[in-house]
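Input structure tokens:
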């Protein structure tokens, strides 16, 4: 089949992190990033929290140019995104600072090409052209490029996922950029949460000031969801299940994070679970029905390369209460609930942000601050108006109800828990990509 045209959305940002605080923070971070040579930092037998994220035996030649770059691909379940980060060493002998980011995305995600791996890899090729346009030719050979796939590929059969990744690796090898070992792989969900936490707290300056409290992070993708925060109470550490706590060192401090990724509880995977469609892979001729959908609705939806027929309850109840009962079955009893989160503050992004924007709870550009109860209020409003439904997303009632159930009955947040919804901090995209790029540069010994 012919490859569909791929809509590109370019966001070019050069935040002038020129304030004394921002420059100092960047310099402090890069003291850690560039102070080590890869042969002494990443030993293959070293047990570290980022083992399997970037462990490379390649060390490029030292770079003396004042500007250098890092290319990070985020291959999610619903789209593939490229982040091109620019770092500048403004004065000889001084540490470089983060200067800006170019961000673009294509849809659908790689998992939609489960049986057409070459076509899937072409979407990555399209985005590589963006990197070529953004980075001077003289820097291509020393600019590392890496792709990390997330939950969309974790859910695929291993053989099919690897076929996709091999095709992407071939694209990288043919590119003019530096291709490290392990340049294309599936990232563990817990690392995704840790790297997102590092990104947000680095950009807000909270990793560098001992007087400030760090913020937790909540990420809601299409196939998985992550929660990460720094516990303040000994009780939390004592009551947390094994495997949910991870220690690492940064800025001469040791952090013991609570982090976990729940595969299958992302927004779109939760839709399938709510519809009862997880086991069936879209039985031909069968329509999955839900009280969360307009009664008159008859439609089809493709997710992960599978087509599903779905619609509203032609008989029986519709609206918030019966819908909430459906989504509650998806999350109830499946998530650990640390008591400490009820009094914390969290950054929330991805589908938390998107659904809040779509329902006018926050501004698209500026984001906003909400409480958990605001999602429930909006869910009741949307679900109570299904008969007059006009939104472009027929799943809006289901999605808002699911987010409410995930936050309250899943993670155990209080109605009053504060959520800071944002796409960018200091004009840099939130999420795990910047944190991953820091470790990529460190592993390669770039910027000496």
């Amino acid at each position: 089949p012919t490859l569909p045209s791929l809509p590109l959305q370019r966001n070019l940002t050069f935040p002038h992190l020129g304030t004394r605080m921002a420059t100092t923070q960047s310099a402090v971070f890069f003291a850690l990033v560039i102070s080590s040579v890869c042969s002494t930092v990443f030993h293959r037998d070293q047990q570290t929290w980022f083992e399997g994220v970037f462990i490379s035996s390649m060390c490029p030649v030292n770079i003396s140019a004042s500007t250098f770059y890092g290319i990070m691909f985020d291959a999610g379940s619903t789209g593939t995104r490229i982040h091109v980060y620019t770092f500048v060493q403004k004065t000889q002998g001084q540490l470089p600072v983060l200067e800006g980011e170019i961000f673009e995305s294509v849809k659908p995600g790689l998992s939609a090409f489960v049986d057409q791996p070459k076509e899937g890899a072409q979407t990555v090729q399209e985005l590589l052209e963006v990197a070529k346009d953004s980075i001077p030719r003289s820097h291509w050979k020393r600019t590392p490029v890496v792709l990390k796939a997330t939950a969309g590929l974790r859910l695929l059969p291993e053989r099919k996922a690897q076929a996709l990744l091999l095709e992407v690796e071939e694209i990288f090898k043919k590119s003019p950029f530096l291709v490290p070992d392990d340049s294309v792989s599936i990232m563990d969900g817990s690392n995704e949460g840790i790297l997102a936490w590092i990104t947000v707290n680095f950009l807000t300056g909270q990793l560098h000031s001992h007087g400030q409290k760090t913020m937790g992070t909540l990420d809601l993708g299409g196939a998985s969801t992550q929660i990460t925060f720094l516990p303040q109470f000994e009780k939390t550490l004592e009551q947390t299940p094994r495997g949910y706590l991870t220690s690492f060192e940064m800025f001469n401090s040791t952090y013991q994070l609570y982090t976990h990724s729940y595969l299958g509880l992302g927004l779109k995977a939760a839709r399938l679970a709510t519809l009862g469609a997880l086991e069936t892979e879209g039985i031909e001729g069968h329509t999955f029905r839900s009280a969360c959908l307009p009664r008159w609705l008859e439609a089809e939806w493709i997710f992960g390369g599978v087509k599903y027929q779905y619609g509203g309850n032609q008989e029986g109840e519709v609206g918030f209460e019966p819908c909430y009962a459906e989504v509650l079955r998806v999350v109830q009893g499946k998530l650990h609930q640390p008591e400490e989160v009820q009094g914390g503050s969290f950054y929330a992004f991805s589908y938390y942000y998107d659904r809040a924007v779509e329902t006018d709870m926050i501004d698209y550009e500026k984001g906003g601050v909400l409480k958990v109860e605001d999602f429930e209020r909006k869910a009741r409003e949307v679900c109570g108006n299904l008969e007059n439904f006009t939104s472009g997303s027929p799943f809006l009632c289901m999605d808002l109800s699911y987010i409410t159930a995930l936050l309250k009955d899943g993670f155990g947040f209080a109605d009053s828990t504060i959520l800071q919804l944002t796409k960018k901090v200091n004009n840099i995209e939130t999420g795990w990509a910047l944190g991953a790029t820091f470790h990529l540069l460190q592993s390669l010994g770039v910027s000496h």
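Residues 1-65 have pLDDT under 50 and may be disordered. The longest strand covers residues 253-263.
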